[in-house]
Amino acid sequence: MSYSPEIIETAEKELEKRRMASETELEKRRSILFARSPRAEEIERMIARTSVAAARAILGGADRRARLESLRDQNLALQKELAGIVKGFGFPENYLDLWHRCDKCGDHGYVDGKMCTCMKTLLRQISYDQLNSMSPLSLSSFDDFSLEYYSKSPSDGESGISQYTQMSRVLSRCRAYARNFSSSSNSLLFQGAPGLGKTHLSLAIAKELIDSGFGVIYTSAPTLMTKLSHESFDYYRSGGQSSTEQLLADCDLLIIDDLGTEFTSRFTVSAIHNIINTRMIVSKPTIISTNLSVPDLEKKYDMRILSRIIGTLERIVFVGSDIRQQKKRAR
Questions:
Q1: Is the dihedral of CA 17, 19, 25, 27 positive or negative?
Q2: 29's torsion region: left (phi>0), alpha (psi -120 to 50) or beta?
Q3: What's the chain's Rg over C-alpha atoms?
């Protein structure tokens, strides 16, 4: 996947910060050790001097081999003594080494000229963060989802259960989904009128999974279609897949909120079909929320999209009265 120069620069700056943090931490550890053992600091200086002497010996005369062997023995003895001091204080053996986040590349991002897996992961996460930057992921959680706005009176529908009971089940299902999430989790369809908590619970799931280390992209349908439309020129010019499309296909969970509120065109219908179809092909979970009923979905989208949304996603029905309006009236 190709990334923009800005994303690559952001990743490189992050790796530089990691290297600087490792060096700072090492200096703190050295200060702690030297405060406890002045001999340890003296040994470090002596090891440094033997290294300089070895470099000079290489340029020396006929006896340089014997000189190098003597310096090597001195160096090994000093290292052994220093290791003994470190161990004596109960510190780990690598206490005086740089502790990198990635031992393969030393937090440089490349190994033998090839991009390290840590760099690939970082680039992908930065791209996720940029896509999620307009979403209030930190503003919703399961704990602040209140059931007090749902009526406990039996409904007039076929089920006869109250709004409160139905939404309690919805909340429990969403909690379980986040708790047990894996690559084989079901895709979900959140369906119901506006203001019933679909966005809130979508964001709560996203927040839980991001905190657990999963790659999640949360976006509204209008925002996503606008972004893909802006990238379409580059897509056709390059003859390849846009970076956003690749990220949508690769992320652990894709959440598309407010499906049906986007401007409808041949481009958006095709884009939505491609996104859903690609996720299905690679067996990646998707959550879609919509205010539209099944008949309304039938009017807006063709059967290719409907068969995938209705036929393959687990339907979660939201009921009740618009919570936003209830809160306004309560003020």
A1: negative
A2: alpha
A3: 29
Can you spell out the DSSP letters for 83-151?
HHHHHHTT--TTTTS---S-TTTTTSSEETTEE-HHHHHHHHHHHHHHHHTTS-TTS--STT--STTS-
Contact 258, 289 (CB under 8 A): yes
All domains in the chain, ordered by first residue = 17-101 (no CATH), 134-330 (3.40.50.300)
In sequence order, what are the beta bridge partners of 74? none
CA distance 188 to 280: 12
Look up residue 278 and give its two tokens: 């690609």
Residue carrying the six token digits 């910060």:
17
DSSP three-state, residue 190: strand
Quote the pLDDT of residue 197.
93
Q: In what order do the strands lie in the sheet with 188-191?
A: 216-220, 253-259, 286-290, 188-191, 314-317
Concatenate the DSSP letters of all residues of 59-73 into one string: TS-TTHHHHHHHHHH
Helix (H, G, I), strand (E, B) or coil at 158: coil
* Residue 169 or 302, more confident: 169
Report CA-CA distances (Å) from 207 to 70, 91, 213: 60, 37, 10
Taking the C-alpha atoms of residue 170 and residue 164, their distance in angstroms, rounded to an integer, is 10
Structure-block tokens of residue 287: 């959550």
Residues contacting 94, CB < 8 A, separation 6+: none
Give the single-character DSSP code of 213. T
Integer Cα distance of 152 and 161 in angstroms: 8
**pLDDT one-digit tens code per residue, 86-139:** 999 999 999 999 999 999 999 999 999 999 999 988 988 888 787 677 666 666
Could you give the CA distance from residue 217 to residue 211 in angstroms, rounded to a whole number? 13
Which residues 6+ apart lie within 8 Å of 222 measured at CB?
258, 261, 262, 263
pLDDT recorded at residue 98 = 93
